[in-house]
User: What shape does this take?
Amino acid sequence: MNNINPAAERQRLNELSGNIIGLCIEIHRELGPGLLESAYEECLAYELSKAGLSFERQRPLPVRYKEVRLDCGYPLDFVVEGALSCGAQSSAELHPLHEAQLLTHLKLDHKSLGLLINFNVPVLKYGVKRVACGTLFKDNIGGR
Assistant: This one.
């Protein structure tokens, strides 16, 4: 991100996360809570494709430990537009562990913003968690 305008990158990521949240709301309105995580992932992949957004699904994320690259196969649910990590959940609630895992993914993958989407809630806005990593969002709410 050396040659990127930070304000423009924040705006781009905010717009992208808003688009993804909108797609997830559409999925949740259609299907409601209670399905398996894999069903919501399939729907999100469909909606991302339909929206013309590029994404990688279940991309393995290697872990670097000192000078060694460990191919542990840490999978990322979605990486959208090469810039934003998104995890789909269908659990009773989001736990601090889910947020910590996403934050670790962001650090390992050098990403600034991620989303956790828990579809197993009555109203999806209560299942959305934005997680920021690094300095790009430091002065904004939710930044780390």
User: Anything to note?
Assistant: The radius of gyration is 15 Å.
